[in-house]
């Protein structure tokens, strides 16, 4: 035993008396903080330890892998080679995520494995997985897989995650009739006909090239379905899926949502479609609802009865009157950016709001915001605001006010003024406005960058960010119209 492992043994022996060390007989935890120089996991065999967890140990070696391990997690350790792991023939659960592994051929002898997590590596060839006949859960998300040959024999597979790969053909999955959870988001799949005999409970295939979801007609047990960012226009097959609880249909070309009638869906995402009529949603009580970028909807009255909604996005819907929102007092997040709203009296009863986006509207009077919680984050940039007195008692660090008509900053300290980046009073000056209008490309690029910064603050996942950035580009025309409007009306506030 080398000196490094002797040090580990001493720590192990100490842990018998010192429970603060995260080392014990059944579960060994290697981290840079606790064990600074461990170079292999062979000590697990010496101590007859059956479970090992290693995180952020770039020096870790599998050369002397013990046979007695049943669970092993080696994550974020910069592993390129897993040579030696073939000796762990008793493994039931193996995690090797967030490494640099390309060759997984050493896994072919681990025939007892039931759970295998290989996410975030450099894996392309998965053909050796056909030898792992006990696999029940397989995670291959964020790799370079382009062929699913090797998975067709995994008849007992129940969970399969292939998100963020390069898959085009899913025909090899047709025999996996035990699958309950299948994630294919972020690939290049056009046809899901291979899934026609499956009865999935969770299915994700966002960011692909799907036009038809007819093959899902037998999956009546679906409770979570993600079809966002495809080319779907017909959702009739959903009419029989009464178990749906989470449904994402954003960024498609859907017009008719009648098949959603009578459903109890608590998370319903319908943004960026061509929807005109939302009456089929009557009676539904979702917790989260998005309808942004559906500019053809004229009647929002059914939302009055959705009093349990916590998250609502109606951005870019050409709204002028949002009074139908006044009964939605349980809202925590409300997004109404890029509309034509001037009266915000509807927020008076919304005392649970944490996030309120009213940017790029026609708001002048901020008095209703006096009823909103002091710490609520409020986006008010791009409106017609002249006076800040109504919100003087709010935490102004949580409010954006740039691109308005404000000239009186007596309620702000210097730091708050600086945080406004470019005081909106500049827009009141005709020459500055004309200068910006005369150089639209530079100015619109600046606006695009600002929009991107806001999106990053929302901590969205990568696809949501990309989607929103694309939408921000579409909003550039709206921004130009807003600035022209400000130029024409600036005399009112001078």
From TrEMBL:
InterPro entries associated with the record: Leu-rich_rpt (IPR001611), Leu-rich_rpt_4 (IPR025875), Leu-rich_rpt_typical-subtyp (IPR003591), LRR_dom_sf (IPR032675), SDS22/Internalin_LRR (IPR050836)
Gene3D superfamilies named in the record: Ribonuclease Inhibitor (3.80.10.10)
Alphabetically ordered keywords of this record: Leucine-rich repeat, Repeat
Transmembrane parts of this sequence: none
Keyword Hydrolase: no
Superkingdom of origin: Eukaryota
Record-linked Pfam families: LRR_4
Protein name in UniProt: Leucine-rich repeat domain-containing protein
Organism of this sequence: Hexamita inflata
């Amino acid at each position: 035993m080398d000196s490094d492992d002797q040090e580990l043994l001493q720590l192990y022996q100490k842990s018998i008396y010192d429970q603060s060390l995260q080392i014990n007989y059944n579960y060994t935890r290697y981290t840079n903080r606790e064990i600074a120089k461990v170079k292999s996991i062979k000590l697990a065999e010496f101590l007859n330890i059956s479970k090992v967890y290693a995180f952020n140990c770039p020096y870790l070696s599998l050369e002397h892998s013990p046979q007695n391990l049943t669970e092993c997690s080696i994550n974020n350790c910069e592993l390129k080679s897993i040579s030696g792991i073939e000796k762990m023939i008793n493994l039931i659960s193996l995690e090797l995520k967030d490494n640099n592994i390309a060759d997984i051929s050493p896994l072919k002898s681990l025939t007892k494995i039931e759970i295998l997590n290989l996410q975030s590596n450099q894996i392309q060839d998965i053909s050796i997985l056909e030898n792992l006949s006990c696999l029940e859960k397989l995670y291959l998300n964020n790799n370079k897989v382009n062929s699913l040959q090797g998975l067709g024999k995994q008849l007992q597979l129940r969970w399969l995650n292939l998100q963020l790969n390069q898959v085009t053909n899913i025909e090899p999955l047709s025999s996996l009739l035990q699958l309950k959870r299948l994630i294919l988001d972020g690939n290049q799949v056009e046809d899901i006909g291979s899934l026609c005999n499956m009865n999935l409970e969770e299915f994700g295939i966002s960011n692909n090239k799907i036009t038809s979801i007819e093959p899902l007609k037998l999956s009546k047990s679906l409770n979570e379905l993600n079809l966002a960012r495809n080319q779907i226009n017909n959702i009739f097959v959903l009419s029989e899926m009464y178990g749906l609880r989470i449904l994402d249909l954003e960024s498609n070309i859907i017009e008719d949502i009648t098949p959603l009638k009578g459903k109890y869906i608590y998370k319903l995402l319908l943004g960026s479609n061509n929807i005109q009529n939302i009456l089929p949603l009557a009676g539904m009580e979702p917790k989260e609802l998005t309808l942004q970028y559906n500019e053809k909807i004229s009647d929002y009255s059914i939302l009055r009865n959705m009093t349990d909604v916590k998250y609502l996005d109606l951005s870019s819907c050409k709204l002028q009157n949002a009074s139908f929102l006044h009964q939605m007092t349980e809202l925590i997040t409300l997004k109404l950016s890029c509309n034509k709203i001037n009266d915000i009296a509807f927020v008076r009863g919304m005392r649970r709001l944490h996030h309120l986006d009213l940017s790029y509207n026609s708001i002048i009077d901020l008095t209703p915001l006096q009823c909103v919680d002091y710490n609520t984050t409020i986006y008010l940039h791009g409106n017609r605001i002249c006076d800040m007195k109504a919100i003087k008692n709010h935490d102004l660090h949580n409010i954006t006010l740039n691109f308005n008509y404000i000239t009186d900053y007596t309620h702000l300290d210097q730091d708050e003024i600086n945080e406004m980046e470019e005081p909106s009073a500049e827009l009141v000056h005709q020459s500055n406005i004309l200068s910006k209008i005369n150089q639209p490309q530079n100015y619109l690029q600046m606006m695009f960058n600002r929009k991107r910064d806001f999106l990053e603050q929302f901590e969205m996942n990568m696809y949501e960010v990309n989607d929103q950035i694309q939408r921000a580009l579409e909003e550039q025309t709206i921004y130009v119209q807003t600035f022209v409007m400000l130029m024409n009306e600036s005399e009112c506030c001078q």
